[in-house]
């Protein structure tokens, strides 16, 4: 089968139309938004996504300038290029928004996420969980005779990989902060 995305009930991609429609390609974007730190701003930003049916994969918010009362919202979302452009334009129109940056298209950026993993197990599974934690540079932040809580910082892909390896070893719970990101360079 070809690499074309075929919609059910559509003849859009027939044998006579071999050009793929690139507007159907979904991309993952990290968007940083600088806003006033005041009540209701986060609700307005989230409302923009919910009202238009856009998904938020990750959301982090923190005050970054205490004297200027500014917060940074980092949003990871997916959509077609047209949808991403629409999201950025609509974010820019919200009154307390000062800046909107699409870190995915503006150049190289650094993304990190903090996660806590509770893993329960004894015997060989306990030893294997500790060995894997060492390989992934996860820190033990709590330990009992029957469980560990590991802390790890890394890319979302690293967090996902560690979680998948911990599942058969007794992964009980996961808490993730969401992506924090900054562009690289000056």
TrEMBL record:
Coiled-coil stretches noted in the UniProt entry, renumbered to this chain: none
Query: SUPFAM superfamilies of this UniProt entry?
Result: ACT-like
Matching entries from InterPro entries are given as: Acetalactate_synth_ssu, Acetolactate_synth/TF_NikR_C, Acetolactate_synth_ssu_C, ACT-like_dom_sf, ACT_dom, AHAS_ACT, AHAS_small-like_ACT
Q: Which UniProt keywords apply?
A: Amino-acid biosynthesis, Branched-chain amino acid biosynthesis, Transferase
Q: In which pathway does it act?
A: Amino-acid biosynthesis; L-isoleucine biosynthesis; L-isoleucine from 2-oxobutanoate: step 1/4; Amino-acid biosynthesis; L-valine biosynthesis; L-valine from pyruvate: step 1/4
List, alphabetically, the Pfam families matched.
ACT_AHAS_ss, ALS_ss_C
Q: Which PROSITE patterns match?
A: ACT
Name the record gives this protein: Acetolactate synthase small subunit
Species whose genome carries this gene = Rhodalgimonas zhirmunskyi
Species lineage, top-down? Bacteria, Pseudomonadati, Pseudomonadota, Alphaproteobacteria, Rhodobacterales
């Amino acid at each position: 089968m070809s690499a074309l995305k075929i919609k059910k009930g559509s003849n859009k991609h027939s044998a006579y139309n071999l050009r793929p429609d690139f507007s159907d390609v979904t991309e993952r974007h990290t968007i940083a938004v600088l806003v006033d730190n005041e009540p209701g701003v986060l609700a307005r930003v989230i409302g923009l996504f919910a009202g238009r049916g856009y998904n938020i994969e990750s959301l982090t918010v923190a005050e970054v300038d205490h004297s200027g009362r500014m917060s940074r919202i980092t949003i990871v979302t997916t959509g077609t290029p047209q949808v991403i452009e629409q999201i950025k334009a609509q974010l820019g129109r919200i009154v307390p928004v000062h800046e909107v940056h699409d870190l995915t298209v503006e150049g190289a950026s650094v993304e990190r996420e903090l996660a806590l993993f509770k893993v329960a197990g004894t015997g060989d599974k306990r030893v294997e969980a500790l060995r894997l934690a060492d390989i992934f540079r996860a820190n033990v932040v709590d330990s009992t005779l029957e469980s560990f809580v590991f802390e790890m910082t890394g890319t979302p892909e690293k967090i996902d990989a560690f979680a998948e390896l911990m599942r058969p070893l007794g992964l009980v719970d996961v808490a993730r902060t969401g992506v924090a990101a900054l562009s690289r360079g000056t």
